[in-house]
Specification:
Blueprint: H1 3-6, E1 13-17, H2 44-57, E2 61-65, H3 75-85, E3 88-93, H4 98-108, E4 113-118, H5 123-130, H6 135-148, E5 153-159, H7 167-176, E6 181-186, H8 191-195, H9 197-200, H10 204-220, E7 226-230, E8 250-253, E9 259-260, H11 281-287, H12 289-293, H13 310-313, H14 318-325, H15 341-352, H16 368-372
Parallel strand pairs: 1-2, 1-8, 2-3, 3-4, 4-5, 5-6, 6-7
Antiparallel strand pairs: 8-9
The chain binds iron/sulfur cluster and FE2/S2 (inorganic) cluster (FES).
Iron/sulfur cluster binds next to helix 13.
Length: about 375
């Protein structure tokens, strides 16, 4: 175990990306461009072992995610297994397709919480963004059934140029859905969102107006709904503490079993990610070189190394540093102390100023290899 690992607490959360398959095709999907095929997915017994190892490692929350996790035939069995282990289970779902069929059984299996994605407040726009006709009213019906089952509901909306004008309506819709929480999450530009960045980037004025609107709604709806806000990195002065710090709080397991510190970590070419097929989760957490690469603060260059915020934001996001600075160990350009900060903001202003944004490039399995070539510089 390295010095950084010795100073690290046990993880509290596991994001289980059970599959990359999904009925929706959102252009900001955080899945990688090279989506795992069904034939590469872990089997039921391996996922159960992973959950048992997670519980033994101290994990409290399991996020059953994807793609759309309910396309797995064994989702009810896996949820029941997590419940038996005493893990708090959160289903991150599109709410359409198999999710509709399996909701009752998932509730019976002990599912604790549902996080439902919506693409916009109004059907036509929502369905254009998600790439599936007829999805929006089905999501509303799904939400109604979640509440009827007595499960707490969180509504998640990824915000971008195509729906930023609907932020107020999205919040009102979440209230009408009786959600306990709504996440207004400005797009993070990794995976498919990076490919679609020039179609998704809002203007600074739009971003500022959306933040003001959320602040007003928080006052107006206090005690009724919790509103979480993920700020738009490209117009911020400080970066987010991505995943609560690299290898500090959570781990992700991909459909084929690679264990990552964050969902975009595989974009960092110099890192090798161990698999649950060859290593226990504890082994990966404490000993894998990839988890130790950016743990703690010893790896930091200036200006982070001598910054008073270095244990607050942990230097921001390694994947964003790689994407924009070409170096995963650089200070996140979202930070105003980064030499690339002005360039990052100029890029956002230039991309958002086009009168007509380019059309979405929808995610699809098998299209990643071509589209990786098309990423904006
Ligand atoms: Fe965070 Fe580094 Fe910026 Fe300081 S210099 S605020 S640690 S990113
Ligand atoms: Fe990888 Fe932020 S997404 S560190």
């Amino acid at each position: 175990m390295t010095g950084a690992a010795r100073a690290t607490p046990n993880p509290i959360g596991l994001l289980a990306e059970l599959t990359h398959r999904c009925p929706l095709r959102c252009p900001y999907c955080s899945n990688p461009l090279d989506l795992d095929r069904r034939s590469h997915e872990l089997d039921t017994a391996t996922w159960k072992r992973v959950f048992s190892e997670a519980a033994a490692l101290g994990v409290l929350h399991v996020h059953l995610s994807g793609g759309e996790p309910t396309v797995r035939q064994d989702i009810v069995e896996l949820t029941a297994h997590c419940a038996q282990l005493g893990l708090y289970t959160n289903l991150i779902t599109s709410g359409v397709g198999p999710a509709e069929e399996r909701l009752d059984a998932l509730s019976d299996a002990g599912l604790d919480h549902v996080q439902l994605s919506i693409q916009a407040a109004h059907s036509a726009n929502a369905e254009q963004i998600g790439g599936l006709a007829g999805a929006h009213p089905r999501k509303l019906d799904f939400a109604r059934r979640v509440v009827e089952h007595g499960m707490p509901l969180t509504v998640n909306a990824v915000i971008h140029r195509g729906n930023i004008a609907e932020v107020g309506d999205i919040i009102d819709l979440a209230v009408a859905m009786q959600a306990k929480r709504v996440e207004i999450a400005h797009t993070q530009y990794y995976g498919w969102a990076q490919v679609n960045r020039s179609a998704l980037m809002p203007t600074r004025e739009q971003a500022d107006a959306s933040i003001a609107l959320v602040e007003g709604a928080r006052q107006r709806l206090k005690g009724q709904i919790v509103i979480d806000l993920v700020l738009p990195d490209y117009y911020s002065n400080y970066p987010k503490p991505c995943t609560g710090g690299w290898g500090r709080r959570t781990l992700n397991v991909t459909p084929s079993g690679r264990v990552l510190p964050c969902h975009a970590a595989e974009t960092i070419p110099e890192l090798v990610f161990w698999s649950v097929s060859e290593h226990s989760l504890a082994d990966v957490w404490w000993s894998s070189p990839a988890f130790n690469a950016f743990r703690g603060t010893d790896w930091m260059p200036e200006p982070c190394r001598s910054c008073e915020r270095k244990e607050r934001d942990w230097g921001g996001c390694r994947c964003q540093a790689l994407a924009l600075a070409g170096d995963a160990a650089a200070t996140d350009p979202a930070c105003h102390k980064s030499p690339l900060h002005d360039r990052m903001q100029a890029l956002a202003i230039s991309e958002s100023s086009a009168a007509e944004p380019p059309p979405y490039r929808y995610r699809s399995i098998g299209a990643g290899a071509d589209r990786r070539q098309e990423q904006p510089a």
